[in-house]
């Protein structure tokens, strides 16, 4: 006992003598702010991700069970309510052990000292750090109540499995909130601080159970519970939760990881860009500080993602890859944007860590509508303008080929896009001009262009980098939104711990601009509806009219479909990060879109008020017209070389009324309309007339009489006699 008293007096004198020598230990101006993880929510208020340095959810002491509070005090600091920051008796006992061992083995730290260490110090085992810890603890006791110190401790303490604080530990090990814990469960958590890894109940349950019983015995010894309560708690069946707690998700859940990272990167860059930089830190250092602020600031981040639509997107991609036998190497991305706002409501970047939603890929023919719309917007053509689709050599020796080597001759702009005619499409881009085409692509929000893209091969998707699925969905949104570009965005608002809005669409400075006239947007939408109805995109057909375009890069390395209805524009991409070829064509992507959108509509996830039910997929007719360079007023006669057959929607026939011709059988002797069985067969001739200008009068009576005369018996008899005479 005398030895203990001497050590105690010596230790107190050491604190008094050395306390003044530690400068900068005054915390009178310090205010505690818990390091809280930031939470990311979907538009339908689902928790979709967390950002943290220490996985913590701060919980007020009043919500923490008394049993858990008592258990912690019993096992960690039984004299917590009687000491003033440090416990001399406990320190001396620890000192005796340390002297015996010859090194600092036991710390004898009170709860207040542990709080001081967690807030202000490192975890190094030195006597100087221990003195600082005591000095800080004394100051904390002057600054805060016991109630507050215990609350801080229960929220700051590390409890294993990357969890900090009793609420996260409760969720991790029991999938319960802390206020729902039983006495037995509370005692098990109270036993973890001493050695969180060694007592981890998911790996070492027997150790954790033994430690729990020690805690319960300590609670009996300190008078917090009765022996009967302790025995009952020891007999309680403790069930440790398996797997992931779906209410409090992992840091980056697989299905939302790329969306969450987009959000985190955007906010990190914003915080870094707006930080004061008096220390002249590098961009990398500023970004690290911004990341830490986001990880510990307890922000609530509200995003645009709709988890119900996201679920359909993920299922459509995964099931589509499997059902079409694309193999393990295949990957896919799907992005859906609300055209009227720019909200990204679904975003799946694929099955790997690489976010394919933001990776530029060769767009194939999905780029065609973008410059077709540009040419129409410049009034260089409309949907009925004729283009000659034939093998062509363009400047620089560029010789594109149509798919399958087939050419249509003259076709309307509509049919050239419906059937994705390569040569005709290059002519459309040529008419718009390479430079103007690039300017339009920029207006669509595409920022992956390079100087190497300034050539006609871009018309068929031959680009240096390509276009991302996100940008492609955003570009097609313009067609669905009356020609107006709304920049895609992920974040609605961010609130700090006090509920103040610190980031919103205003800070994002989102771009809105009129890229196409409303008429052009409607016209290209009508053409792209035909692409799905009767063209290359048939596999994307829905019960409502939908518009879209397929696209395939060389060797089937990229399979695309980009489609839209009024409330939703979607890009579907299939491929591989290593550019392996896939077995199959872009029809697979179109089928994925069809499956995805059918479920979205069936489940009522978007409004169908602005959608039109399909009544017919094909309302086209074939007509014959004069070639564009022919003038009927300067022609004496129309020949086969002067006309061409084209396919048009029936409703567009009035556009060609002055060019339509008709082929008519006439009687060449009289110039009258030939009527079968009424005119001599040898007089039949096909002539071409402008529509409505062919002969109306039919063969006249003499011709009919001649027909009958040939059938008369005496006529045949005369012919027979004539033959006999000749024979003779």
What is the averaged pLDDT score? 89
Roughly how many Å apart are the termini?
Answer: 164 Å
Cα gyration radius (Å): 41 Å
**CATH topology name of the largest domain:** Beta-lactamase
Which class of secondary structure composition applies to the elements? alpha+beta
Helix content: 25-40%
How many beta-strand runs? 21
Kindly estimate the percentage of residues that lie in beta strands according to DSSP: 5-15%
CATH architecture level-2 label of the largest domain: 3-Layer(aba) Sandwich
Query: CATH class of the largest domain, please?
Result: Alpha Beta
Low-confidence region ranges: 16-21, 102-106, 244-250, 714-728
Can you tell me the overall shape? Answer: elongated
CATH superfamily of the largest domain: DD-peptidase/beta-lactamase superfamily
Q: Number of DSSP helices?
A: 23
- When the domains are counted, the total is 3
- How would a crystallographer describe the biggest sheet? 5 strands, mixed
Write out the strand line-up for the largest beta sheet, numbering strands in chain order: 2-1-5-11-12
Gist of the model:
The protein is of the alpha+beta class and 728 residues long.
Describe this structure in words.
- The chain has 728 residues and is α+β, with helices and mostly antiparallel strands.
- The chain folds into 3 domains: 2-29 and 56-235, Biosynthetic peptidoglycan transglycosylase-like (Penicillin binding protein transpeptidase fold, Orthogonal Bundle), CATH 1.10.3810; 310-500 and 508-602, DD-peptidase/beta-lactamase superfamily (Beta-lactamase, 3-Layer(aba) Sandwich), CATH 3.40.710; 620-700, no CATH class.
- Helix content is 39%, strand content 14%.
- The chain has 23 helices and 21 strands.
- Strands 2-1-5-11-12 form a 5-stranded mixed β-sheet. Strands 7-6-16-15-14 form a 5-stranded antiparallel β-sheet, sandwiched between helices. Strands 17, 18, 19, 20 and 21 form a 5-stranded antiparallel β-sheet that branches.
- Helix 1 (2-19) packs across helix 3 and helix 11 crosses helix 12.
């Amino acid at each position: 006992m005398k030895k203990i008293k001497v050590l105690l007096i010596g230790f107190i004198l050491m604190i008094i003598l050395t306390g003044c020598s530690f400068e900068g230990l005054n915390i009178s101006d310090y205010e505690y702010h818990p390091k809280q993880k930031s939470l990311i929510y979907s538009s339908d208020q689902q928790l979709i991700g967390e950002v943290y340095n220490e996985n913590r959810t701060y919980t007020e002491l009043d919500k923490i069970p008394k049993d858990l509070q008592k258990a912690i005090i019993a096992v960690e600091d039984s004299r917590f309510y009687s000491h003033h920051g440090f416990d001399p008796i406990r320190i001396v006992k620890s000192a005796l052990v340390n002297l015996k061992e010859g090194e600092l083995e036991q710390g004898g730290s009170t709860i207040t000292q542990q709080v001081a260490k967690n807030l202000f110090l490192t975890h190094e085992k030195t006597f100087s750090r221990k003195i600082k810890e005591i000095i800080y603890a004394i100051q904390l006791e002057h600054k805060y109540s016991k109630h507050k110190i215990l609350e801080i401790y229960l929220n700051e303490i590390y409890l294993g499995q990357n969890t900090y604080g009793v609420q996260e530990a409760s969720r991790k090990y029991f999938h319960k909130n802390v206020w729902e814990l039983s006495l037995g469960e509370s005692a098990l958590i109270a036993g973890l601080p001493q050695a969180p890894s060694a007592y981890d109940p998911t790996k070492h349950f027997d150790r954790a159970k033994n430690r729990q019983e020690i805690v319960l015995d300590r609670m009996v010894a300190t008078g917090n519970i009765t022996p009967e309560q302790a025995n009952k708690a020891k007999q309680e069946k403790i069930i440790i939760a398996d797997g992931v707690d779906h209410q409090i998700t992992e840091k980056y859940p697989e299905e939302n990881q790329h969306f969450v990272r987009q959000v985190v990167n955007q906010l990190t860059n914003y915080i870094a860009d707006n930080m004061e930089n008096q220390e002249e830190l590098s961009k990398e250092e500023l970004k690290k500080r911004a990341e830490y602020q986001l990880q510990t600031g307890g922000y609530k981040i509200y995003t645009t993602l709709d988890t119900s639509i996201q679920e359909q997107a993920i299922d459509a991609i995964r099931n589509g890859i499997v059902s079409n036998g694309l193999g393990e190497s295949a990957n896919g991305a799907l992005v859906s944007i609300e055209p009227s706002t720019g909200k990204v409501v679904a975003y799946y970047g694929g099955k790997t860590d690489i976010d394919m939603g933001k990776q530029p890929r060769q767009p194939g023919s999905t780029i065609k509508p973008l410059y077709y719309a540009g040419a129409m917007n410049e009034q260089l053509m409309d949907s009925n303008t004729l283009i000659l689709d034939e093998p062509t050599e363009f400047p620089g020796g560029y010789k594109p080929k149509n798919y399958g080597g087939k050419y249509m001759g003259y076709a309307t702009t509509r049919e050239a896009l419906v059937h994705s005619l390569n040569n005709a499409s290059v002519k459309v881009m040529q008419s718009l001009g390479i430079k103007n085409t690039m300017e339009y692509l920029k207006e669509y929000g595409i920022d992956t262009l390079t100087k190497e893209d300034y050539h006609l091969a871009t018309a068929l998707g031959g680009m240096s980098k390509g276009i991302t699925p996100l940008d492609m969905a955003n570009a097609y949104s313009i067609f669905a939104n009356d020609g107006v570009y709304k920049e895609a965005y992920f974040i609605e608002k961010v609130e700090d711990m006090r509920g103040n809005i610190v980031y919103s669409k205003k800070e994002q400075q989102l771009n809105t601009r009129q890229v196409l006239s409303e008429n052009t947007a409607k016209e290209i939408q009508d053409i792209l509806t035909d692409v799905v109805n009767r063209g290359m995109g048939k596999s994307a057909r829905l019960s409502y009219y939908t518009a879209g375009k397929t696209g395939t890069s060389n060797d089937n390395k990229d399979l695309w479909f980009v489609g839209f209805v009024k409330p939703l524009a979607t890009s579907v991409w299939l491929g591989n990060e290593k550019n392996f070829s896939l077995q199959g064509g872009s029809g697979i992507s179109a089928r994925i879109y069809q499956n995805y959108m059918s479920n979205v509509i069936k489940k009522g996830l978007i409004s169908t008020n602005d959608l039109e039910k399909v009544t017919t997929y094909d309302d086209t007719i074939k007509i014959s017209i004069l070639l564009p360079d022919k003038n009927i007023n300067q022609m004496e006669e129309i020949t086969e070389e002067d006309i061409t057959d084209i396919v048009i929607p029936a409703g567009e026939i009035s556009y060609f009324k002055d060019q339509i011709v008709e082929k008519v059988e006439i009687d060449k002797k009289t110039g009258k309309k030939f009527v079968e069985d009424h005119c001599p067969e040898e007089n039949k001739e096909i002539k071409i007339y402008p529509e409505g200008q062919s002969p109306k009068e039919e063969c006249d009576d003499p011709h009919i009489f001649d027909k009958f005369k040939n059938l008369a018996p005496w006529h045949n008899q005369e012919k027979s006699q004539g033959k006999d005479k000749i024979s003779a």
